[in-house]
Sequence to fold (187 residues):
Amino acid sequence: MATTADFRNGLCLELNNELYTIVEFQHVKPGKGGAFVRTRLKNLKTGKVLQHTFNAGHKINVARVERRPYQYLYQDDLGYHFMHSATFEQISIEEHLINAPEFLKEGQEVEIVYHADTETPLNCELPPFVELEITYTEPGVRGDTATNTLKAATTETGAVVNVPLFIDTGERIKIDTRTKSYAERVK
Fold:
C-alpha cells in the first residue's frame, strides 16, 4: 500500500479493478479545506485518459509492472509476433495493444509492458523515434517554400506521413511515434 505522497509520473496503480498509470499529478493545498491531489490517469488496457482527484494521504494499491525487451518478427491473422531478446521466447499480441503499429518493421526493438502478477501483456511501446525510408512521395515544386507546406509521403512500412516539400523518394526520415508525425531528415 502506498499513499498520495508516493505519486510520481509513470507509477502504475489499481483503481476500480483496472490498471492505470499516472500521466501527471498536482498536489493542491487550498486556503480553506483539506489538501488533495489532482491526477490524469491512463488506462493501460484501453488507453483512455481520465481525471481523478484523491484526498491527501489516500491509500492506493500499487501494481507491479515489468518492461521487457522484444524484437518484432512478423504479422499474420493471429496478430503481431515478437521474440524476447534474451530468452528467444515468442509471443503474439493484438494490434490494439501497440501504440503505433503502422511504424513496425522487421527487427524493430520494442518494449512490452507486463502485469507482473498475472503475466499478461498490457501494451507494446515503440521507441520514441523510428527511422524509415520514403518509398513514394510527389516531387516538390521549386520555389514553393514561402510557407511551411507539407505533403503526403508513404514509408517502407506503408504508413502515410506528412513531410516538408524538400523530402524526396528514397530519403530516410525520423518519425515521432508518440505524435505519429515527421521529426527530421536522417543524413
Residues 38 and 53 are 5 Å apart (CA to CA).
